[in-house]
Design brief:
This protein is an all-alpha fold. The chain contains eight helices and no strands. It has one domain. Helices cover 77% and strands 0% of the residues. α6 runs antiparallel to α7. The chain is globular. The relative contact order is 0.15.
Length: 216
């Protein structure tokens, strides 16, 4: 596979988010709280990918964008889980989690991985926490006495997408700075796989926005 194919795959991965955004706009009045909060995350993704691609095309380092993105993304993700995990974790848990992660991200940028470096420490921690929350959600589903149709539950699709995405990319986020700097065959392969996983995540987002959750 050549460099052009991986660039094409990267562009598809970056802007496929437009599909669930258009769907969310079309179905806006029918969206529940979880779906609305997912919409906020998708808007953020589109903005970040647009800025990042614009900087990359102008040969300007776009890594500083992802330092800010990681924090906002994390806060939006835990804002989603705060709704569905309220029976397991108190509200204060998510507040403390958000503050702690933000402080860690700022400290990492100031003292360990500056704005011009890929913030692998932060993205690794983000992945670990989201995987924990994802598994916690599945645990909460197992504890439910009543049967719920999972295929019509938006959070089921969002959660499954998060688990697949962050589990698949955890090693990539951690080792990127050390092994895949520059435009090498290995880097194209790894980021190509990342793009594929990102496309899968977006498909799960689209399903989550398409389904009509049954009211309790």
């Amino acid at each position: 596979m050549n460099e052009g194919f991986f660039k094409f795959l990267g562009n598809v991965s970056s802007f496929i988010v437009i599909i669930p955004l258009l769907l969310a706009t079309y179905r806006f009045k029918k969206l529940n709280k979880v779906q609305i909060r997912l919409l906020y995350l998708l808007v953020l993704v589109l903005i970040v990918e647009s800025i990042s691609n614009m900087l990359w095309r102008q040969k300007i380092n776009n890594l500083p964008v992802y330092h800010f993105y990681a924090v906002i993304e994390f806060l939006l993700i835990i804002n989603i889980y705060r709704i569905v995990l309220s029976k397991i974790f108190p509200k204060q848990f998510f507040i403390i989690l958000g503050i702690t992660f933000t402080v860690f991200a700022i400290t990492n940028t100031l003292f360990f991985q500056n704005l011009n470096t890929f913030n692998s420490n932060v993205t690794t921690l983000l992945g670990i926490i989201v995987i924990f929350l994802s598994l916690s959600y599945f645990y909460a589903l197992l504890k439910e006495v009543k049967y719920n149709a999972l295929e019509t539950n938006p959070m089921f699709w969002i959660n499954a997408g998060f688990l697949i995405y962050f589990s698949s990319n955890l090693i990539l986020f951690f080792i990127n700075n050390n092994m895949f700097q520059g435009s090498t065959e290995a880097s194209y392969l790894v980021w190509g796989l990342h793009a594929i996983v990102n496309i899968v995540l977006t498909i799960f987002y689209t399903i989550a926005l398409w389904v009509n959750p049954k009211k309790p």
